[in-house]
Amino acid sequence: MRTHVFGFTLLEILIAVLVLALGIVGGVALQMAALRARHQASLLSQATQLATGLAERMRANPAQAATYLTLNYDAVAEPAPAPPAALCHGAACVAAELALSDVYDAKTLVRQNLPAGRVVICRDAALWAGGKLYWPCSGGAGAPLVIKVGWRGKHPDGTPQADEPQPGVAVVVGAMP
């Protein structure tokens, strides 16, 4: 007469633990990817708010287009931007002082909110090349003013990317003098 022994063998238990471990590792990887995507979406939102806010300031001060066109800021190359003579926060300023204050505020916001960020205002008739935004501008007196904002991302292991960032946002201000 045979007796049957019921239970699990050591091999079955090891296989079950392995499957459970793979599921946990997959879940953690998915969570990390979701956190990275949320962070990138937050940076994109901040860059969009910065660019649209600056565009509104430029539209309110159109005579100072030449002053705004001087904005080419890279937080890596210039970590602490120098403030202008007048900051115009709640004080009366002439149009030129207001434009310089706006440029300084944009630099400060990029420095505070975007990791190793960059912002450029230029005349550009061709924003896209090969399906991507690029920093170089086509120029030309009739080309619209464009605000380009970007930031350097990080590799999946958390180390910063060394190469120059691509613009993540480009807002067309329109034709200004």
Automatic annotation (TrEMBL):
Name under which the protein is recorded: Type IV pilus modification protein PilV
Entry keyword set: Membrane, Transmembrane, Transmembrane helix
InterPro entries per the UniProt record, alphabetical: Pilin-like, Pilus_4_PilV, Tt1218-like_dom
Every Type IV pilin Tt1218-like domain range: 29-103
TM helices/strands, residue ranges: 6-30
Matching Pfam families: Tt1218-like (PF22150)
Secretion signal span: none
